[in-house]
Design brief:
single chain; 297 residues; 4-stranded parallel β-sheet; Rossmann fold; globular; 6-stranded mixed β-sheet; alpha/beta
Protein backbone atom coordinates (compact mmCIF):
# COMPACT_ATOMS: atom_id res chain seq x y z
CA UNK A 1 0.00 0.00 0.00
CA UNK A 2 1.04 3.58 -0.60
CA UNK A 3 0.89 4.37 3.10
CA UNK A 4 2.98 1.51 4.42
CA UNK A 5 5.76 3.86 5.49
CA UNK A 6 3.67 6.37 7.46
CA UNK A 7 4.23 6.19 11.23
CA UNK A 8 1.80 4.74 13.72
CA UNK A 9 -0.41 7.18 15.61
CA UNK A 10 0.78 7.28 19.25
CA UNK A 11 -1.58 6.26 22.05
CA UNK A 12 -1.20 8.48 25.12
CA UNK A 13 -2.82 8.87 28.52
CA UNK A 14 -5.23 11.82 28.65
CA UNK A 15 -5.66 13.09 32.19
CA UNK A 16 -8.09 15.95 32.80
CA UNK A 17 -9.64 17.14 36.08
CA UNK A 18 -13.22 16.19 35.21
CA UNK A 19 -12.11 12.68 34.28
CA UNK A 20 -10.21 12.28 37.54
CA UNK A 21 -13.23 13.48 39.54
CA UNK A 22 -15.45 10.88 37.85
CA UNK A 23 -12.70 8.22 38.10
CA UNK A 24 -12.91 7.61 34.36
CA UNK A 25 -9.65 6.72 32.62
CA UNK A 26 -8.98 7.97 29.11
CA UNK A 27 -6.33 7.54 26.47
CA UNK A 28 -6.08 9.47 23.23
CA UNK A 29 -4.99 8.07 19.88
CA UNK A 30 -3.15 11.00 18.30
CA UNK A 31 -3.96 10.79 14.61
CA UNK A 32 -2.91 14.43 14.41
CA UNK A 33 0.71 13.26 14.83
CA UNK A 34 0.78 10.77 11.95
CA UNK A 35 2.05 13.22 9.34
CA UNK A 36 2.30 17.02 8.98
CA UNK A 37 0.02 17.08 5.90
CA UNK A 38 -1.65 13.64 5.66
CA UNK A 39 -2.92 14.21 9.16
CA UNK A 40 -5.73 12.80 11.22
CA UNK A 41 -8.40 10.37 10.10
CA UNK A 42 -8.38 11.69 6.54
CA UNK A 43 -5.55 9.59 5.16
CA UNK A 44 -7.00 6.45 6.75
CA UNK A 45 -10.18 7.13 4.79
CA UNK A 46 -8.24 7.93 1.61
CA UNK A 47 -5.82 5.01 1.56
CA UNK A 48 -8.03 2.52 -0.32
CA UNK A 49 -9.11 5.16 -2.83
CA UNK A 50 -5.49 6.01 -3.54
CA UNK A 51 -4.48 2.38 -3.92
CA UNK A 52 -7.41 1.75 -6.27
CA UNK A 53 -6.38 4.77 -8.34
CA UNK A 54 -2.81 3.53 -8.53
CA UNK A 55 -3.85 0.02 -9.60
CA UNK A 56 -6.15 1.37 -12.32
CA UNK A 57 -3.60 3.98 -13.38
CA UNK A 58 -6.11 6.78 -12.94
CA UNK A 59 -4.60 10.15 -13.88
CA UNK A 60 -6.22 11.97 -10.99
CA UNK A 61 -8.69 12.17 -8.11
CA UNK A 62 -11.59 14.52 -7.59
CA UNK A 63 -13.68 15.20 -4.48
CA UNK A 64 -15.59 17.98 -2.76
CA UNK A 65 -15.78 19.95 0.49
CA UNK A 66 -15.82 23.42 2.01
CA UNK A 67 -13.29 26.22 1.98
CA UNK A 68 -11.69 24.95 5.21
CA UNK A 69 -11.98 21.27 4.25
CA UNK A 70 -9.56 18.92 6.01
CA UNK A 71 -10.53 16.23 3.50
CA UNK A 72 -9.57 18.28 0.44
CA UNK A 73 -6.41 19.45 2.20
CA UNK A 74 -5.32 15.84 2.78
CA UNK A 75 -6.32 14.82 -0.75
CA UNK A 76 -4.29 17.63 -2.29
CA UNK A 77 -1.29 16.70 -0.14
CA UNK A 78 -1.61 13.02 -1.07
CA UNK A 79 -1.88 13.88 -4.74
CA UNK A 80 1.26 15.97 -4.63
CA UNK A 81 3.19 13.36 -2.65
CA UNK A 82 2.17 10.29 -4.64
CA UNK A 83 1.94 11.76 -8.12
CA UNK A 84 -1.79 12.13 -8.74
CA UNK A 85 -3.46 15.21 -10.19
CA UNK A 86 -6.31 16.44 -7.96
CA UNK A 87 -9.41 18.58 -8.36
CA UNK A 88 -11.70 19.95 -5.66
CA UNK A 89 -15.35 20.98 -5.93
CA UNK A 90 -15.90 23.65 -3.28
CA UNK A 91 -19.14 24.58 -1.55
CA UNK A 92 -20.37 28.12 -2.09
CA UNK A 93 -18.67 30.95 -3.94
CA UNK A 94 -15.00 31.73 -4.29
CA UNK A 95 -13.26 32.74 -1.08
CA UNK A 96 -9.68 33.25 0.00
CA UNK A 97 -8.86 31.17 3.08
CA UNK A 98 -5.61 29.62 4.35
CA UNK A 99 -6.90 26.20 3.30
CA UNK A 100 -7.79 27.39 -0.20
CA UNK A 101 -4.34 28.91 -0.58
CA UNK A 102 -2.80 25.59 0.46
CA UNK A 103 -4.94 23.67 -2.04
CA UNK A 104 -3.74 25.92 -4.84
CA UNK A 105 -0.12 25.68 -3.70
CA UNK A 106 -0.35 21.87 -3.72
CA UNK A 107 -1.62 21.92 -7.29
CA UNK A 108 -5.30 21.13 -6.82
CA UNK A 109 -7.62 22.52 -9.51
CA UNK A 110 -10.53 24.27 -7.77
CA UNK A 111 -14.14 24.60 -8.95
CA UNK A 112 -16.65 26.62 -6.90
CA UNK A 113 -20.06 24.98 -7.35
CA UNK A 114 -22.25 27.29 -5.28
CA UNK A 115 -24.56 26.16 -2.50
CA UNK A 116 -27.17 24.66 -4.80
CA UNK A 117 -24.55 22.64 -6.60
CA UNK A 118 -23.21 21.41 -3.29
CA UNK A 119 -26.68 20.39 -2.06
CA UNK A 120 -27.04 18.26 -5.19
CA UNK A 121 -23.99 16.15 -4.31
CA UNK A 122 -26.10 13.11 -3.38
CA UNK A 123 -28.31 13.28 -6.47
CA UNK A 124 -28.00 10.68 -9.24
CA UNK A 125 -25.86 12.03 -12.01
CA UNK A 126 -23.99 14.56 -9.88
CA UNK A 127 -20.62 13.21 -10.99
CA UNK A 128 -21.44 12.79 -14.71
CA UNK A 129 -20.31 16.24 -15.93
CA UNK A 130 -17.14 16.00 -13.86
CA UNK A 131 -16.35 12.54 -15.22
CA UNK A 132 -16.71 14.00 -18.72
CA UNK A 133 -14.43 16.89 -17.82
CA UNK A 134 -11.88 14.64 -16.09
CA UNK A 135 -12.06 11.30 -17.96
CA UNK A 136 -10.61 8.36 -16.10
CA UNK A 137 -10.31 10.19 -12.80
CA UNK A 138 -11.58 8.59 -9.60
CA UNK A 139 -14.43 10.43 -7.91
CA UNK A 140 -14.30 10.32 -4.10
CA UNK A 141 -17.41 11.14 -2.04
CA UNK A 142 -17.15 14.04 0.38
CA UNK A 143 -15.01 13.05 3.35
CA UNK A 144 -14.25 9.69 1.73
CA UNK A 145 -17.77 8.82 2.83
CA UNK A 146 -18.31 5.35 1.40
CA UNK A 147 -17.50 1.77 2.35
CA UNK A 148 -13.94 2.06 1.03
CA UNK A 149 -13.33 5.00 3.34
CA UNK A 150 -14.83 3.19 6.32
CA UNK A 151 -12.77 0.06 5.71
CA UNK A 152 -9.62 2.15 5.53
CA UNK A 153 -10.24 3.10 9.16
CA UNK A 154 -9.81 -0.49 10.37
CA UNK A 155 -6.12 0.32 10.70
CA UNK A 156 -7.00 2.83 13.45
CA UNK A 157 -8.28 0.01 15.64
CA UNK A 158 -5.21 -2.12 14.89
CA UNK A 159 -2.86 0.70 15.87
CA UNK A 160 -4.73 1.29 19.13
CA UNK A 161 -4.79 -2.37 20.14
CA UNK A 162 -1.08 -2.76 19.46
CA UNK A 163 -0.23 -0.04 22.00
CA UNK A 164 -2.53 -0.85 24.93
CA UNK A 165 0.23 -2.63 26.81
CA UNK A 166 2.41 0.49 26.65
CA UNK A 167 -0.21 2.24 28.80
CA UNK A 168 -0.48 -0.66 31.21
CA UNK A 169 -3.95 -1.48 29.86
CA UNK A 170 -5.07 -4.95 28.84
CA UNK A 171 -8.31 -3.67 27.30
CA UNK A 172 -10.71 -0.73 27.22
CA UNK A 173 -14.47 -0.26 27.15
CA UNK A 174 -15.41 2.17 24.40
CA UNK A 175 -14.33 4.67 21.75
CA UNK A 176 -15.29 8.34 21.65
CA UNK A 177 -14.78 10.48 18.54
CA UNK A 178 -16.22 13.33 16.52
CA UNK A 179 -18.58 12.43 13.67
CA UNK A 180 -18.60 14.72 10.63
CA UNK A 181 -19.74 12.35 7.89
CA UNK A 182 -19.79 9.30 10.18
CA UNK A 183 -17.39 7.36 7.96
CA UNK A 184 -14.61 6.98 10.54
CA UNK A 185 -17.16 5.94 13.16
CA UNK A 186 -18.54 3.33 10.77
CA UNK A 187 -15.01 2.05 10.16
CA UNK A 188 -14.41 1.58 13.87
CA UNK A 189 -17.75 -0.23 14.25
CA UNK A 190 -16.85 -2.60 11.41
CA UNK A 191 -13.39 -3.27 12.86
CA UNK A 192 -14.64 -3.78 16.41
CA UNK A 193 -17.43 -6.14 15.30
CA UNK A 194 -19.24 -5.67 18.62
CA UNK A 195 -16.19 -6.02 20.87
CA UNK A 196 -16.42 -2.40 22.05
CA UNK A 197 -19.05 0.28 21.66
CA UNK A 198 -18.25 3.32 19.54
CA UNK A 199 -19.61 6.71 20.61
CA UNK A 200 -19.84 9.43 17.99
CA UNK A 201 -20.21 13.09 18.95
CA UNK A 202 -22.25 14.58 16.10
CA UNK A 203 -20.35 17.72 15.15
CA UNK A 204 -22.94 18.56 12.47
CA UNK A 205 -26.74 18.93 12.68
CA UNK A 206 -29.00 15.92 12.18
CA UNK A 207 -30.15 17.17 8.78
CA UNK A 208 -26.68 16.46 7.39
CA UNK A 209 -27.71 12.81 7.22
CA UNK A 210 -25.01 11.26 9.41
CA UNK A 211 -27.30 8.75 11.20
CA UNK A 212 -28.64 7.53 7.87
CA UNK A 213 -25.16 7.31 6.38
CA UNK A 214 -23.79 5.29 9.30
CA UNK A 215 -26.80 2.99 9.29
CA UNK A 216 -26.36 2.34 5.56
CA UNK A 217 -22.74 1.32 6.16
CA UNK A 218 -23.01 -0.75 9.36
CA UNK A 219 -26.64 -1.12 10.41
CA UNK A 220 -28.06 0.02 13.74
CA UNK A 221 -25.86 -1.70 16.32
CA UNK A 222 -22.45 -1.21 17.92
CA UNK A 223 -22.54 2.56 18.26
CA UNK A 224 -24.30 5.54 19.76
CA UNK A 225 -24.56 9.08 18.40
CA UNK A 226 -24.59 12.11 20.72
CA UNK A 227 -25.51 15.69 19.70
CA UNK A 228 -22.46 17.98 19.73
CA UNK A 229 -22.95 20.52 16.93
CA UNK A 230 -23.81 23.32 19.40
CA UNK A 231 -26.55 24.65 17.19
CA UNK A 232 -25.24 24.37 13.66
CA UNK A 233 -22.53 23.34 11.25
CA UNK A 234 -19.20 25.02 12.11
CA UNK A 235 -20.92 26.87 14.97
CA UNK A 236 -18.36 28.15 17.47
CA UNK A 237 -19.21 29.83 20.78
CA UNK A 238 -17.37 31.32 23.74
CA UNK A 239 -17.91 28.30 26.01
CA UNK A 240 -16.39 25.97 23.42
CA UNK A 241 -13.34 28.19 22.87
CA UNK A 242 -12.82 28.56 26.62
CA UNK A 243 -13.03 24.77 27.04
CA UNK A 244 -10.46 24.24 24.29
CA UNK A 245 -8.10 26.80 25.80
CA UNK A 246 -8.35 25.21 29.24
CA UNK A 247 -7.95 21.67 27.88
CA UNK A 248 -4.88 22.60 25.84
CA UNK A 249 -3.33 24.20 28.92
CA UNK A 250 -4.07 21.16 31.09
CA UNK A 251 -3.08 18.46 28.60
CA UNK A 252 -0.64 20.08 26.17
CA UNK A 253 -2.70 18.60 23.31
CA UNK A 254 -3.92 20.94 20.54
CA UNK A 255 -7.57 20.81 19.52
CA UNK A 256 -9.70 22.53 16.90
CA UNK A 257 -13.21 23.87 17.34
CA UNK A 258 -15.19 22.14 14.59
CA UNK A 259 -14.63 18.51 15.50
CA UNK A 260 -12.17 17.48 18.24
CA UNK A 261 -13.04 20.35 20.58
CA UNK A 262 -16.77 19.73 20.27
CA UNK A 263 -16.29 15.99 20.71
CA UNK A 264 -14.24 16.33 23.89
CA UNK A 265 -16.65 18.89 25.34
CA UNK A 266 -19.54 16.52 24.66
CA UNK A 267 -17.59 13.76 26.39
CA UNK A 268 -17.08 15.98 29.43
CA UNK A 269 -20.83 16.60 29.60
CA UNK A 270 -21.56 12.88 29.43
CA UNK A 271 -18.93 12.03 32.06
CA UNK A 272 -20.21 14.70 34.44
CA UNK A 273 -23.77 13.44 33.91
CA UNK A 274 -22.68 9.98 35.08
CA UNK A 275 -22.95 8.28 31.69
CA UNK A 276 -19.78 6.25 32.39
CA UNK A 277 -19.26 4.33 35.61
CA UNK A 278 -16.12 4.78 37.73
CA UNK A 279 -13.35 2.59 36.39
CA UNK A 280 -14.45 2.92 32.77
CA UNK A 281 -11.61 3.09 30.26
CA UNK A 282 -12.20 5.15 27.12
CA UNK A 283 -10.13 5.88 24.03
CA UNK A 284 -10.67 9.33 22.56
CA UNK A 285 -9.78 9.53 18.87
CA UNK A 286 -8.01 12.76 17.95
CA UNK A 287 -9.07 13.06 14.31
CA UNK A 288 -6.62 15.83 13.42
CA UNK A 289 -7.90 18.73 11.33
CA UNK A 290 -5.64 21.23 13.06
CA UNK A 291 -5.00 23.08 9.80
CA UNK A 292 -8.62 24.25 10.05
CA UNK A 293 -7.80 26.29 13.17
CA UNK A 294 -6.50 29.01 10.87
CA UNK A 295 -10.04 29.67 9.71
CA UNK A 296 -11.23 31.09 13.01
CA UNK A 297 -8.17 32.05 15.08
Amino acid sequence: MLFATLPCAPLQHLVLPWMETARVSCAVLRLDLVDPLLSGNKWFKLRHYLDDARRSRAPGLISLGGNHSNHLHALAAAGKRFGFATAGLLRGHEQDTPTVRDLKAMGMALHWIGFGGYRARHQPGFWHPWQERYPGWHCIPEGGGALAGARGCSLIVEQCRAQLGDLGWDDFDAWWLAAGTGTTLAGLVLAEAGAREVHGALAVPLDHGVPEHVQALVGRHGYQLHPASRGGFARIDAELLAFIEATERQSGMPLEALYTGKALLALRDQVEAGRFAPGTRLVFLHTGGLQGRRGYL
